[in-house]
Each structure stands twice: as structure tokens, then as C-alpha cells.
Design brief:
Order of helices and strands: HHHHHHHHHHHHHHHH
Distance between the termini: 31 Å
Largest sheet: none
Radius of gyration: 20 Å
Helix content: over 70%
Structural class: mainly alpha
Mean pLDDT: 85
Strand content: under 5%
Length: 360
């Protein structure tokens, strides 16, 4: 850990209970501020910001590994539950188009990762996982299993989530009138549907164990995601993920990442900010060009094409699409879900390939 000057170490002298209380309080403030802006992933980004402040000021508390593993398994269940029969049907009907767009986007993001690592902004694997246009949380969890610096990957991924979410929301608002469309309300404590809730707990637990036995990278996350997808799509098993459980899981992941930040790593990320922002804007422009091609060459609704190709998180795009009239939700989610699956499948290969290119 980077050495901190004495005036930056005082948080580490606090009792653990006081550090946890301060972390919770600052996290709640950040979450409230981000939630006011309707920013997706507020319950992950807010706690991560709070933990970065704590970590760079000498905090010594850490999230127990079993809790972090459980949070990863819950996110794996979320990925599995987000892929529905309707999405599979939409992919089947347009599989060639969807695959071509996904491959083009992955090629562009890998080139940007190579560019960032070539100029020694970040190492190869970190640059690739940070540039990967999949679900931000999934990319962060996967990156750590392949030698990437999770802190820098998180910095790149969540900065892109913020930029893409703001851009997509503005485009949607300018394109269509969303004033008459209500966003789905958050029901924090829904009635527990015990069969679906119990199935989710079982999938998370068994998937995590199987992931460890199979020695999967990021075993808790991937094990639960794969088992959940098989159960949900293949056998129609319902999965209930209450909002309170998702929020707690996001917070645990955000705290784990943020508490490992040091003043040195934060300064390095800040110095690289212009290059990171430039790479995000370049990827957004490339995806915008793909949307233009889909719209003008194939007659797909422009807003549907833009949201489908947008390199933001699957959850943020889903929220914006749900509040936009006339959007083909199935096509948007099919392309976004397919891209997430492709990144999870081919991300390790691309990271190794780019790292090899940089060394040559």
C-alpha cells in the first residue's frame, strides 16, 4: 500500500466501528445525490466513491471475503435473470445482424484498449477490460481473475457508465417526448415469492460452489450466472431478486473496490483521465456510427438502433429504453445481452491477445 503522510492516516486510527459508521454515512450521501440525478448504478458508484475517500485516507476496514463472494453470486443471478425467452427469440430472428454489430463493437473496444496500453497509459489486460462494452459490474468482477488492476478497470468502466447514460438519456429526451412515460417504480421490499426467492438463493450458493470446483475465473459470479441461465432459460425456473438485496450486493462490491484505492493509484487514474475520456468518446462515436448504419441501411428505428448499440451498461440502457416511446425493447435487450455474453466468453482471449501485441 502506498505510504500516506501522517495527516492522511488519521482515519486508520479510528476504531473499526467508527470507520464503518463513517463509510455508511458518506455512502448514503453519495447514493442520495446520484439517485436524484436518476443515474443507474447509484448504489454501486456511491459506495465506491465513499470507499475511495476512506481508502485514500488510511481506512483499515475491509469487506470480509465471504460477503464479497456472496455479492458476486447475486450479481451472477441478476445477469442470468436479465436474459429472457423473448430476448433469445429476438436474437434468433436477427442473429446475423446482432452478431455482426457485437463483433464490430468488440473489435473497436479492443483496438482502444490496445491504443491505451500501447502508449503506456494502463497495462494491456487492464486497458482491455476497462474498455470492454459489457455490463460494468461483470467486467470488473471478471477483470480481477485475469490479472487486471480492478481499481483502474472500475474507474474506466463506471466513468463510461456515467458518460453513456447521460448521453443516451439526452438523446432519448431530444428524440421523443418521454414526459408521459413513467419509469418503473422501485419496490424496495416486495412480498417474497418463496419458490423464486429460494431458487435464487440455491442458484447463487450452488453456482458459487460449482464455479470453485470447476476453477472458473471469478467463480462466484460466473458459476451463478451460468447455472442461473441454464435454470432460467432452459427449465423456466423463476428468479426473484429484491431491490434491497441488489442494493446491498452493489454496495459490498463498491466498498471492496474503493477501499483498495490508494492515493498513488488515484493520482495515476487522474493523470490518465484525458486519454480515458477520449477513448470513451471514440467508442461512443463508433457505436453511434453503427446505429446510423442500422437505421439508414436496414430501416431500424433510429432511437432503437442508438440504444441497442450504446456501449453503456445493460441496466442503464434498459431503464432509458423503457421510458422511451416506440423503442423495440426486445431488439435493444437482445443486442445488449448478446454483447455481454460475447465479452464474458471472449474477454480473456482479447486481453491476452492485446497484451501480447503490446509486448511485441
Amino acid at each position: 500500500m502506498d505510504a500516506l503522510p501522517p495527516d492522511r492516516q488519521r482515519l486508520g486510527t479510528w476504531p473499526a466501528a467508527a470507520q464503518c459508521t463513517a463509510l455508511l454515512a458518506v455512502s448514503a450521501i453519495f447514493v442520495a445525490l446520484l439517485d436524484l440525478t436518476a443515474l443507474p448504478a447509484a448504489f454501486l458508484i456511491g459506495p465506491m466513491f465513499a470507499a475511495i475517500i476512506a481508502g485514500t485516507n488510511g481506512a483499515t476496514v475491509r469487506i470480509p471475503r465471504p460477503l464479497f463472494g456472496a455479492a458476486q453470486a447475486i450479481v451472477g443471478c441478476l445477469v442470468a435473470a436479465s436474459i429472457s425467452i423473448e430476448i433469445v427469440a429476438a436474437f434468433t430472428s436477427d442473429w446475423l445482424l446482432v452478431t455482426a454489430v457485437v463483433v464490430a463493437t468488440l473489435a473497436a473496444s479492443s483496438f482502444l484498449g490496445w491504443f491505451i496500453s500501447r502508449f503506456k497509459v494502463f497495462p494491456g489486460s487492464t486497458a482491455v477490460w476497462g474498455s470492454a462494452p459489457g455490463g460494468a459490474t461483470a467486467m470488473v468482477l471478471m477483470a480481477g481473475a485475469f490479472g487486471a488492476d480492478v481499481r483502474l478497470v472500475a474507474f474506466m468502466q463506471y466513468l463510461r457508465v456515467i458518460m453513456v447514460s447521460v448521453a443516451a438519456a439526452l438523446v432519448a429526451r431530444l428524440w421523443v417526448d418521454t414526459s408521459g412515460v413513467a419509469l418503473p417504480a422501485h419496490i424496495w421490499f416486495p412480498a417474497i415469492q418463496w419458490p423464486a426467492f429460494g431458487a435464487m438463493i440455491a442458484i447463487a450458493a450452488v453456482g458459487a460452489v460449482l464455479g470453485r470446483i470447476a476453477r472458473l475465473p471469478s467463480p462466484y459470479f460466473l458459476g451463478a450466472a451460468i447455472l442461473g441461465a441454464i435454470a432460467h432459460i432452459g427449465f423456466g425456473v423463476p428468479i426473484q431478486l429484491p431491490e434491497w438485496l441488489l442494493a446491498a450486493s452493489y454496495a459490498l462490491i463498491g466498498w471492496t473496490i474503493g477501499l483498495n484505492f490508494t492515493s498513488g493509484i488515484l493520482l495515476h487514474a487522474a493523470r490518465a483521465l484525458p486519454q480515458i475520456v477520449g477513448s470513451i468518446l471514440a467508442l461512443m462515436a463508433f457505436c453511434g456510427g453503427l446505429a446510423w448504419l442500422l437505421s439508414h441501411q436496414l430501416g431500424i428505428d433510429p432511437l432503437t438502433a442508438y440504444l441497442a448499440t450504446s456501449p453503456g451498461g445493460l441496466d442503464s440502457v434498459a431503464i432509458i429504453a423503457a421510458a422511451s416511446k416506440g423503442v423495440d425493447m426486445s431488439f435493444v435487450m437482445a443486442l445488449q445481452s448478446c454483447r455481454l455474453v460475447f465479452v464474458l466468453a471472449f474477454g480473456p482471449f482479447l486481453a491476452r491477445l492485446v497484451s501480447r501485441w503490446v509486448r511485441e
